[in-house]
Amino acid sequence: AMLLACDQLKVIHVTTHVSLREALDLITEEKVYSRIKLMHYGLIKLGISEPRIGVAGLNPHAGDEGLFGDEEIKSIRPAVQRARIEGYNVEGPVPPDTLFPKALGKYYDGCVAMYHDQGHIPFKMAGFAWDEEKQSMQSVIGVNITLGLPIIRTSVDHGTAFDIAGKGLASDAALLDAIEYAIKIYEN
């Protein structure tokens, strides 16, 4: 599972590189529950001994008790309740427009997003910046950590950036962050 991490925000996704329509079918109680467990494990590996996790709702206002969809009632809330019974410090479903500002304010140590853009947009708002002079997006911070593997795997979050290769535009900041996160995981 993909965990995006920087000092300000840590986000794991229930679904990633699928269409939004397909993501809806993939958001199940079991998958949400597994991401809560992986996020807990990942946060411990990052040195957070008692992680507090917030789980995003899918629909506006986290469904508003079924008024705007029932995914929260059928899949998300049962997964959160199951995790709480097992001792995880987790809350949800939380409306994403509330969840991510609270996480940036350190109320949550990590967030579970339901789909790619729900988690990537707040993460990139925290870690990416447009450089008008260079006419390019600069990855100031941000690491992609793959959880659930038998090895430690970290990577820059911005991808390969072949479009700027050899132009003197690239920064090594994200690569250095990826190395530092790998060391932190190894040490914990």
From TrEMBL:
Indicate whether Amino-acid biosynthesis appears among the record's keywords.
no
Cross-referenced Gene3D superfamilies: Isopropylmalate Dehydrogenase
The molecule here is called: 4-hydroxythreonine-4-phosphate dehydrogenase PdxA
Protein's UniProt keywords contain Repeat: no
Keyword annotations of the record = Metal-binding, NAD, Oxidoreductase
Instruction: List the Gene Ontology MF annotations in alphabetical order.
Output: metal ion binding; NAD binding; oxidoreductase activity
Organism of derivation? marine sediment metagenome
